[in-house]
Structure formats: structure tokens, C-alpha cells
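Protein: Glycosyltransferase family 9 protein
Species: Streptomyces ficellus
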Amino acid sequence: MRPRLLVLRALGLGDLLAGIPALRALRRAHPAYEIVLAAPEQLAAPANASGAVDRLLPASAPGRAVPAHLDWTGPPPEVAVDLHGNGPPSHRLLQRLRPGRLLAFAHPRTPEIQGPAWTADEHERARWCRLLTWYGIPADPSDLRLPAPATPSPAPGAVVVHPGADSGARRWPAERYAAVVRALRQRGHRVALTGGPGEDELLDRVLDAARTDGVRAFRGGLPFDRLGALFAGASAVVSGDTGIAHLAVAYGTPSVTLFGPVAPGLWGPPPGTRHVVLWHPGPPGDPHGQDPDPQLLRIGPDDVLKALLDHPEVPRP
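Structure follows.
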């Protein structure tokens, strides 16, 4: 039986994609191990696409909480890695499995873990790579690209607009997305709208306010192979600070991302001209609030259109 390495990151799509550099570092450092990722079941396909995970162990909890337990069977993992948080709930969850070695950030309430100190003001990709580097595992935060899917795009060359977000604080108003869609169609761009489960009504609001035809709307949450193909084959992606923005980065598709309560220095794309960030600096807001963040509302449709139309890598229709 192969030795097993368990990674805890029971979060969302964006979290998984931000953790790919760390997962790949673990894969390189443990080529003979079976790497098991404890994460929500719906992330099996993107985890497999990373090339760093052998098996997904379904695990989730409401919000960003730590799962109550893991359905781990057989001998304890030789190595367990906490890529979920800074503990102690995530530390204790993994300690209960009695791993041979636990890699995690230090915390005063788990003094037996001799890891590096947690830094709040740190980019998510860099944070987990720093953790592994502290334990002697080289990790590159820029190692985040996914291979292009074999599935053909359902809307090749379209500008993909994703108006949804997990919280209202990071959800730009539907009417503003509609203004962007209308202006893009007037300039001859193909446009596709995407929405996750439960966001059909939001897409309808955007379509109704856009008052234009020829817009493809992909409702209900596409399977990952079609979603990945859509984003890999898009001419550009427009979205808020959500998992979809990370998907555009993973496929190297030009993107414009709207930030509000959270600074792009913590969750934004890598530096360069391909991924444009729109953000008005200010005090941090509540990323899980119900209402659009005031800093997000300072971004107007003209700002988004300018970023798209001036983008050197977005093709003209």
C-alpha cells in the first residue's frame, strides 16, 4: 500500500485554485505518496485537473468552517497538511487521525505544532507556499496554471460575464453588469453569462436590464469540464472577487476583476497586464456582508468597459 498524504482544504473553488501551487509542491516532494485532498465533493474535477491530487475525500462545512470530522479509513496518514486555516479547529481535526507528521501554522492553543507564524496580511497563494517552504518543501506561488480542457468551448471567443458571488458584499449590482453587457454587444462582442446554482434569477435580471439580444446564458452551474472549456476559450472574463476570477487566471484568459471589501493584495491575480484589477483602496470591509461593499460600488460600468477595450490582449470583434 502506498504511503498516504492528507491535505485539508475543505473550502470553495477559488480556495482550491489558490492552493494549487502548494498542492503541486507537495506532489513534487512526495512522488510515491497517494495524495488525498479533503474538500467538497463538487471540487473533484478541478482537483484532478491540477495534476497534484490522487483522490478526493469529501469534506465540507457551512461557510468557511472546519468540518466536524473526516471519513478517513485505514492506517493514519504518514503526513497531514493543514491548508485550511491557522487552527486550532483544523489542527485538532487532523491530529485526531494521528498522522506521522503534521504540517501546519503555529498557534498558541496548539503549542505542540512547531510551524511558522501566521501572517494575516499575506496573499493566499504565497501564504501556503511559505508554510511548505518553512518545512523544507520548495513551493512556487506562480505555479497555478491549469491545462486547457479537451472539451470544446460552448461559446468560443465570447466575453464571459459572471455577475454572481457568494456574498452580497462582493456582488456588483446586476444593472451595472447589464450596462457592460449592452455596451459590449453594441460593439460587436460575443457575450456569455454564467451563474452558479441558485443564480438563475440574477442572470434574468442582468438580461432584462441589458435589453439586447444574442447573449448566451449558462444557468444552474455548468459541469466543470464545460465551465473550464468556456473560460479557457473566452476572449476575456469579467467578474467580481470570486472563484470564477481564479479560474480565468488558471487558464491564462484575460480578465477584469472587481474588488471591494478585500484588497487584491490578498486574493488578486498575479502581477502583469493580462489580469486587470479594479479597486478603490480603503479600509477593509466585511467580505461576507449582505449588501454591496461601498468600495465595490465606486466602480462604474465605464471603468469596466475601459479596462476591457484598452486591454492589449482582448481581441476586437
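Remarks: Residues 59 and 76 are 17 Å apart (CA to CA).
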